[in-house]
Amino acid sequence: MKATEVNAKMPTGKVNWVLFNPKTYATILYLLLSLPLGIIYLTVAITGLALSIALTPIFIGIPLFFGVVKLLDGIVKFEQSMIRQILGLPAPPASYNYSPQSNAGQNWFMRMVRAFDGGLFIRNLLLVIMRFVTGIVFFVIMVTVISLGLGFIALPVVHIILMNEMQLDILEHSLFSYFHIDWTYNQQYMFYVGVGVVLFWIALRVVNGLMQIQRRIMFVDEPYQQARPTMPLQDQTQVSVQSPYVEPPVEQSTPEFMQPAYREL
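^ thats the sequence. predicted structure below, dont judge the formating
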């Protein structure tokens, strides 16, 4: 019961009231930085792997390769921690797998070889590549949807400036003229601002949805899924005990047909 209450109190990372939530604007900043960071991550990974392969014959490439492996693991952990900070997720439980007795008496090369995990290296490399791809795609989507909403909101201001400075009426052939709706400029301003606010709210929802997708791609919830809640002590001690005084069922013999008795005459 207590474990269930603790899990219910843990934050899920969902963003409510997107228009007034600081997490939304932190997510916008994160997605703005995702494009240059993705390029830097991919450049460092490809350059490090290429140099380690090229320098393998002179033995420098092998320690360089293990250094790139550590660097990729650090990049993935940095991205995961940054997403947790933005979404307000708790810190993952620490795992202590270090055994100094097993590494005693070994040089640095053997320690690097024993600590190398091929599956983890492949996963981190794929995550860095996906980080580059999602950085470009999410950046384009976010800029497009936010610009669309802000464009409608700023349309009245732009129209007034162009009318006063350049005598250019951008609303002369607007959508209302095709439907023969004779609205004044003030009415059109209110309509465009209302549409812009709705589109901007939808854009913020899209931004938070992109962040949730990035959260799943980067395996941010993996440490929480590995930590399973323990059962309460009462549930562990309750076992079904059979009473030793239960009498076994008595087998009742089926009644046989009575043989007829014959009297001797």
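The chain has a mean pLDDT of 81.
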